[in-house]
Amino acid sequence: MLLHFLLADSELAWVRQDGTTLILRFSAAQAERRESSPTERPVIGYAPGVLMQLQDATPLPAGIEALFGRVESGVIRSGSERWTGCPLPFASPAPVQLELVLARHGPWQVAASAFSVGFEGEPNFRESWAC
Questions:
Q1: Cα–Cα distance, 79 to 52 (Å, whole number)
Q2: From the CA atom positions of the chain, what is the Rg in Å?
Q3: Which of 19, 63, 64, 82 has its Cβ near the most Cβ atoms within 10 Å?
């Protein structure tokens, strides 16, 4: 099973700073589950407890403890590449810029020397029951 994390429609629980690392916890990360067969359609759902870590983050957003809620849209930029999500788990040693538009807080962005996304605990995925 392959999981692909999607920024849009994910639910951001909190943002915290640990030294120069910015940690974002998603209580429900929008995700696609993809089987190994390319002919099968991905299953849409969510993954609880996903952490994103941005190393050497600058500038650190003011009032980061107040950032939470639904992500309306998001982009991860690395060089000339632009992603709206990434594999889950994933790590990149390349510099990135994260741009998020939060439903309750508007847009914000941060640059980092590297980033990673992974599960807080055991990997998990729950299929969406939305019709």
A1: 19
A2: 14
A3: 64
Locate 115 and state its tokens: 């980033």
pLDDT per position as a tens digit, 52-72? 999 999 877 677 777 888 999
How far is residue 130 CA from its own chain's centroid?
21
Task: Report the number of distinct structural domains present in the chain.
Answer: 1
Per-residue b or e along 48-84, where b marks 16 or more CB atoms closer than 10 Å to that residue's CB:
bbbbbbbbebeeebeebeebbeebeebbbeeeeeebe
Q: State the Cα angle at 15 between 29 and 123, rounded to 5°.
A: 35
Segments forming the whole domain that contains residue 77: 2-127
In degrees rounded to 5, what are phi and psi of residue 65?
-65, -15
